[in-house]
Amino acid sequence: MARIAVVDDERVIADGVAAYLRRDGHDVEVAGTAPDAIELARSEPDLMVLDVMLADGSGFDVLRTLRGEGHSVPVIILSARVDVIDRVAGLEIGADDYVTKPFEPRELVARVGAVLRRTQAATDPATDTADGSPEHQVVHDLEVSVATREVRRGDTEIPLTRTEFDLLVALAEHPGHVLSRGQLASGIFGGWYDESDRTIDSHVRNLRQKLGPRPGGGEYVETVRGVGYRFARG
What we know:
Elements: E1 3-7, H1 11-23, E2 27-31, H2 34-42, E3 47-51, E4 53-54, E5 57-58, H3 59-68, E6 75-79, H4 84-93, E7 97-100, H5 105-123, E8 136-139, E9 142-145, E10 150-153, E11 156-157, H6 162-172, E12 179-180, H7 181-189, H8 199-211, E13 221-224, E14 228-231
Parallel strand pairs: 1-2, 1-3, 3-6, 6-7
Antiparallel strand pairs: 4-5, 8-9, 9-10, 10-11, 12-14, 13-14
């Protein structure tokens, strides 16, 4: 059971989400304003489901405040905005996932579970290599440590979000092999994927920006049009 904060100024939606999460065994608290969301996040819940369009402010601003204060609570953004630029903005600020309205409640519950599992893996050394991932990899000029969840280029650490790190590991484990968006989503988001969902694309975009070009030029993560992505061979 996890303690989850649900923030939405539409009470019907907030109560509906809360009901599904409680049915899944979680302890849920509901808030409807930006100040209440910040206060609730400061009490350190295990995860927050945060609507973008609040009556008294933006969920993006709430998230900026939390990340600026150093709060690492995992956040799943809810939004009626479907534009890629909005999705990218949320993920760049530090959201762990982005779900567009209207949504299937069971999908949201599955995504909550996936984020919670990743969070546990990030904080519990006993689960870091439970999936058989190599504890330490050197790929091109990057050192990837599953045990510490760090990526370094020489002495410089490259800060990645939980999702970006999991995406990098999934791809780097199989250099040269193409993984579809559905395969990546299944491993990262708990199996729910819709062809119109561009979350994986947004995370890949952010990951490429942070990694920069690989030695000799080109991207670490290559696009295979119509199929998915692959990690470049050495």
